[in-house]
C-alpha cells in the first residue's frame, strides 16, 4: 500500500511541478534584465555537443569548421573563397599531382615552439595513418622541401584535396602524443586550458597567435542539453546559446535571436535498386516501391517544402532541393516546383500507379505504393519531418509507415528502407560520396545503392579537375546536365526536404561579425570568425 | 386524515432515504461499475477517434485547450485528446495482456510449488525470490530490449515480470488449503488429487486470482508508461502515454503545459480507478470481508 501511495505522490508531484515551472517561468524572466556586460573579456557559450574523441585534428576534430586550437594551411572567407592562413603561397603542378605550399616563418605553437614544415608533414602523415574520418587515401607522400616548404604528391589528381588544406589543423611534431586530443597544443587563436568532460571546456587567447588578436581573452564552452541551454539563456547565465526551432519564438530579455543560414540539410534517401540482394553482413538491399522512378519523382514534386519549413522549423530554414544548396558547386537548376499534388498524381498515373481498389493507396499491378520511412528516434526534428511528409504523401495515394529507430538499428535497415538523413558540408567531396556508385553501401554514404554511369563520369571529372572552377562545372552537371543527373529532375534518389537555420540566442550587444553559411554540425563552425567578435555599445 | 397523511409522508421519506442511503455493498458495486464504465469509455473513444485527428496540421499547432481540442494540440498540430485516448487504450491493452499472463503464470507456479513436493517448492520459491530481488524496472528493460523493443517487447516484458508476488500468495493459499479438514476428509473418502484440486482448491483461489488480476493492472500500466518514458520499446511517434509525457518535457520550457498536464492527470486517474476497482472487488468477493 505504501508503495502504491508513493507512486501516486510521485505522479502528483510531477504534475504539480509542471504547473509550477510553467507558471513561474514568465515572472522569472522579467526579473532578469540585461546584465551589465561592461567590458567583460570573457564569454560563456552553450553552442553544441562536445567531441567524444577530443580535439585531435588528425582524427577528425575541426572537419566541420574552425579547429580553434590549431590553424590550417588555407581557409575559406565569408564568401566561401579560399584564402591563405598558415600558407603564404601554394601552387599545383600542371598534371594536378604535386601541390607545393610555402608557410609563414613566424608562427609559434602555444607552447612557444616554432611551427615548421616538419610539423605539417607530421600532421598529414599521422592523419593518413590514423585511418579516421579524415580521408587521405589519395595522398601518395608528403615531404618538407625546406623548413617552410611542403610538397604533397597525390596518387591521382583530386580537386577536393584543397579542402583538406582548409580543414586539417596542424599539430606539433615534438609534443604530439597519444593523449593529444585531451590536451591539444596548436597555433590557433585560442589555447587549451581545461576540459571537464561532459561539463565544460575553458580556453584562453593564445598570446603566440600570428593572426588578428581576438577581443575576448577567455571562452567557456558549456555542454548543455537543448532544454538546459535555453533555460540558462533565460537565466542570463550564458552569452550565446544554441537553441532548437521550438524555442525560437520565445522572447528572452537581453538576448537576440541569431538565425544563420546553413547547408545543414535533411532529406529522405530512397533505396534505388529492386529488392533481393544482401550486403556482406546479410542486411537486405533494395525496395520494390522506392526503386520505381515515378514514385520517387512524385514524392519530390508532392512534398510541400515551404510548409515543412514554416510548420516544423517555425520558419527558420529554407526548402532544400539538393545536398549543397547555395554552395559554389550547386546547380540552381535543381530547384523544382513542389507542393504540386496534381503534377505528382499525373507522374504516378504515367508510371501506371493507379488506385483500382479504392482504398486510397495507388497500386502498380499487385504492388501497393507503401514503404517504411525510418528516422533517428532521438531526433525530434527528423521525427516531425517524417510524420509530416507521411501525411503529405497520403494525399497522392502513397502510404508511408513511419518508424523511429536507433542508429544501430538504422544501419541494418538503411539499404532497404527510406531513411531521413542529414548532410551538408563545405566540401563537394560529400556529393561524390553520396552519389558515386563506388560508394554504394560504404559506411553511411550511398546507402540507397544509387548508380548512374553518366553521373559517375561527371563526378570523376569533377574530382580530378585541376582547378575549382572546372570542378564546379562538373559537380553541377552531375546534378542536372539537361537530361539526367542525381537531382530531383533526374533520377531523384533522394528527396531533400529542408535546410535548417542554426539558431542562437545571443546577448543583445555582442557583435559576432559576418557568418558564413553554416555546415552540418551545430556549434563549432560559429566560432570560425571569433577574432571579429566584440561587445557593441 | 392528517395522521395518515403524515404517516404516508414519513413512509415515503423512509422509502426515499432507503433508496438514497447506499450501503457498503451498493457503494462497492457502484464503484466497480463506474470504473468499468470509465475504461470502456476510453477504449470506445480511442476506437471511434479516427486517425485524421492524429494527422499533422500546421495551422493548428501549439493551441491551448479549447472546446475543439479539450487537451490542446502539440507542435505538429495533432489533437492531444486523441493522442491521450489512444495512448491510454494502448496502456489498458498492455495492462490486460500483462495481467492475464501474470495470473496464469502465478497460478501455475503457485499450484506446482504447493502440490509437487519439497524440491519443486524450494526451486520455485527461489525463483520467486530472485524475481522479487531484481529491481522491477531493470528486469523489464532488459527483457524488452533483448526482444528487440517495439510493442511486442514491451508487452512480453511487462507480462513476464509481474507474477512473483501473486504466485507467492497462491502458493501460501494452496498450502493452507491442502491441510484443511475438508480436504483431508475428502481424501480419506477416496477422491483423487485432480478432483480435490478442481472441486476444493480452485474455487477458493478464484477470488484471489480475480483481485490479483485487477491489482496487477495499475502496476503494469505504470511500468509500461515508465519504460516508454525512458525510450525503450515503442517508436517515439506512437501514441503511448509514457512517450507523450517524455516528449512534453521538451516543451515545458516554452509554456506548453497542457502537453504534460492532461495526459499525466489521465494516467493518474486511470491507475487510481483500477486500484479502487481492485479494492472494492476484494471487499465484495473475499469470504472474510464479504458480509461486512
Automatic annotation (TrEMBL), chain B:
It is found in: Cell membrane. The keyword Acyltransferase does not apply. The chain crosses the membrane at residues 29-49, 88-111, 123-147, 209-235, 255-274. Keywords: Cell membrane, Membrane, Transmembrane, Transmembrane helix, Transport. One of its GO terms (cellular component) is plasma membrane. SUPFAM superfamilies: MetI-like (SSF161098). The keyword ATP-binding does not apply. One of its GO terms (biological process) is transmembrane transport. Gene3D superfamilies: MetI-like. It holds the Pfam family BPD_transp_1. InterPro entries: BP-dependent_transpt_permease, MetI-like, MetI-like_sf. It is a multi-pass membrane protein. Residues 88-278 form the ABC transmembrane type-1 domain. Belongs to the binding-protein-dependent transport system permease family. This is ABC transporter permease. It comes from Heliorestis acidaminivorans. The lineage of its organism: Bacteria, Bacillati, Bacillota, Clostridia, Eubacteriales.
Amino acid at each position: 500500500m505504501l508503495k502504491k501511495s508513493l507512486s501516486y505522490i510521485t505522479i502528483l508531484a510531477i504534475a504539480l511541478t509542471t504547473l509550477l515551472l510553467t507558471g513561474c517561468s514568465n515572472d522569472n524572466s522579467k526579473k532578469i534584465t540585461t546584465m551589465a556586460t561592461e567590458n567583460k573579456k570573457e564569454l560563456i557559450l552553450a553552442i553544441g555537443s562536445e567531441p567524444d574523441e577530443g580535439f585531435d585534428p588528425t582524427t577528425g576534430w575541426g572537419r566541420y569548421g574552425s579547429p580553434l586550437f590549431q590553424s590550417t594551411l588555407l581557409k575559406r572567407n565569408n564568401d566561401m573563397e579560399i584564402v591563405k592562413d598558415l600558407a603564404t603561397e601554394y601552387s599545383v603542378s600542371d598534371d594536378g599531382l604535386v601541390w607545393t605550399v610555402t608557410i609563414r616563418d613566424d608562427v609559434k605553437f602555444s607552447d612557444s615552439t616554432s611551427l615548421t614544415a616538419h610539423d605539417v608533414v607530421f600532421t598529414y602523415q599521422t592523419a593518413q595513418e590514423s585511418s579516421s574520418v579524415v580521408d587521405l587515401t589519395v595522398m601518395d607522400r608528403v615531404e618538407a622541401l625546406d623548413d617552410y616548404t611542403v610538397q604533397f604528391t597525390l596518387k591521382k589528381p583530386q580537386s577536393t584535396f584543397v579542402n583538406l588544406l582548409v580543414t586539417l589543423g596542424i599539430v606539433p611534431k615534438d609534443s604530439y602524443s597519444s593523449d593529444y586530443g585531451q590536451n591539444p597544443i596548436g597555433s590557433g587563436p585560442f589555447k587549451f586550458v581545461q576540459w571537464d568532460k561532459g561539463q565544460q571546456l575553458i580556453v584562453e587567447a593564445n598570446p603566440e597567435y600570428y593572426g588578428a588578436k581576438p577581443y575576448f581573452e577567455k571562452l567557456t564552452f558549456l555542454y548543455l542539453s537543448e532544454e538546459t541551454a535555453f533555460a540558462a539563456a533565460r537565466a542570463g547565465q550564458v552569452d550565446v546559446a544554441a537553441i532548437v526551432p521550438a524555442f525560437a519564438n520565445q522572447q528572452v530579455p537581453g538576448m537576440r535571436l541569431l538565425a544563420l543560414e546553413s547547408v545543414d540539410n535533411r532529406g529522405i534517401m530512397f533505396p534505388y535498386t529492386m529488392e533481393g540482394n544482401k550486403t556482406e553482413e546479410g542486411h537486405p538491399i533494395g525496395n520494390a516501391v522506392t526503386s520505381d522512378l515515378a514514385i520517387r519523382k512524385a514524392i519530390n514534386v508532392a512534398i510541400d517544402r515551404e510548409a515543412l519549413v514554416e510548420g516544423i522549423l517555425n520558419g527558420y530554414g529554407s526548402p532544400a532541393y539538393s545536398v549543397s544548396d547555395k554552395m559554389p558547386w550547386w546547380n540552381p537548376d535543381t530547384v523544382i516546383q513542389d507542393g504540386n499534388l496534381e503534377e505528382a498524381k499525373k507522374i504516378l498515373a504515367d508510371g501506371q500507379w493507379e488506385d483500382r481498389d479504392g482504398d486510397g493507396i495507388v497500386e502498380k499491378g499487385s504492388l501497393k505504393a507503401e514503404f517504411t520511412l525510418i528516422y533517428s528516434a532521438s531526433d525530434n526534428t527528423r521525427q516531425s519531418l517524417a510524420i509530416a511528409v507521411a501525411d503529405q504523401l497520403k494525399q497522392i495515394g502513397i502510404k508511408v509507415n513511419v518508424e523511429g529507430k536507433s542508429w544501430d538499428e538504422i544501419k541494418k535497415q538503411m539499404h532497404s528502407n527510406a531513411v531521413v538523413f542529414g548532410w551538408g558540408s563545405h566540401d563537394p567531396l560529400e556529393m561524390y560520396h553520396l552519389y558515386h556508385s563506388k560508394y554504394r553501401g560504404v559506411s553511411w554514404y550511398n546507402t540507397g545503392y544509387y548508380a548512374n554511369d553518366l553521373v559517375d563520369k561527371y563526378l570523376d571529372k569533377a574530382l580530378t579537375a585541376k582547378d575549382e572552377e572546372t570542378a564546379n562545372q562538373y559537380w553541377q552537371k552531375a546534378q542536372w546536365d539537361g537530361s539526367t543527373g542525381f537531382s530531383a529532375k533526374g533520377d531523384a534518389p533522394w528527396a531533400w526536404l529542408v535546410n535548417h537555420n542554426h539558431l542562437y540566442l545571443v546577448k543583445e550587444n555582442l557583435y559576432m561579425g559576418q557568418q558564413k553559411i553554416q555546415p552540418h554540425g551545430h556549434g563549432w563552425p560559429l566560432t570560425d570568425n571569433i577574432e571579429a567578435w566584440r561587445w557593441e555599445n | 386524515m392528517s395522521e395518515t397523511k403524515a404517516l404516508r409522508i414519513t413512509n415515503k421519506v423512509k422509502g426515499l432515504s432507503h433508496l438514497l442511503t447506499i450501503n457498503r455493498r451498493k457503494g462497492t458495486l457502484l464503484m466497480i461499475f463506474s470504473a468499468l464504465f470509465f475504461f470502456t469509455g476510453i477504449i470506445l473513444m480511442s476506437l471511434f477517434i479516427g486517425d485524421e485527428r492524429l494527422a499533422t496540421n500546421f495551422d493548428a499547432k501549439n493551441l491551448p485547450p479549447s472546446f475543439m481540442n479539450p487537451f490542446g494540440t502539440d507542435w505538429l498540430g495533432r489533437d492531444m485528446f486523441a493522442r491521450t485516448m489512444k495512448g491510454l487504450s494502448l496502456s489498458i491493452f498492455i495492462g490486460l495482456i500483462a495481467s492475464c499472463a501474470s495470473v496464469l503464470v502465478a497460478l501455475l507456479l503457485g499450484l506446482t510449488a504447493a502440490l509437487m513436493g519439497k524440491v519443486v517448492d524450494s526451486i520455485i520459491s527461489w525463483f520467486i525470490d530472485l524475481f522479487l530481488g531484481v529491481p522491477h524496472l531493470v528486469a523489464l528493460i532488459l527483457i524488452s530490449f533483448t526482444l528487440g523493443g517495439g510493442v511486442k517487447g514491451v508487452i512480453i516484458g511487462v507480462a513476464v515480470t509481474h507474477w512473483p508476488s501473486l504466485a507467492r500468495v497462491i502458493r501460501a493459499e494452496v498450502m493452507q488449503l491442502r491441510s484443511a479438514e475438508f480436504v483431508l476428509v475428502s481424501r480419506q473418502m477416496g477422491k483423487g488429487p485432480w478432483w480435490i484440486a478442481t472441486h476444493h482448491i480452485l474455487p477458493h483461489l478464484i477470488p484471489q486470482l480475480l483481485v490479483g488480476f485487477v491489482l496487477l493492472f495499475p502496476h503494469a500500466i505504470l511500468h509500461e508508461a515508465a519504460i516508454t518514458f525512458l525510450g525503450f520499446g515503442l517508436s517515439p511517434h506512437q501514441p503511448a502515454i509514457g512517450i507523450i509525457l517524455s516528449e512534453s518535457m521538451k516543451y515545458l520550457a516554452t509554456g506548453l503545459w497542457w502537453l504534460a498536464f492532461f495526459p499525466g492527470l489521465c494516467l493518474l486517474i486511470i491507475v487510481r480507478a483500477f486500484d479502487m476497482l481492485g479494492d472494492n472487488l476484494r471487499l465484495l468477493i473475499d469470504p472474510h470481508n464479504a458480509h461486512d
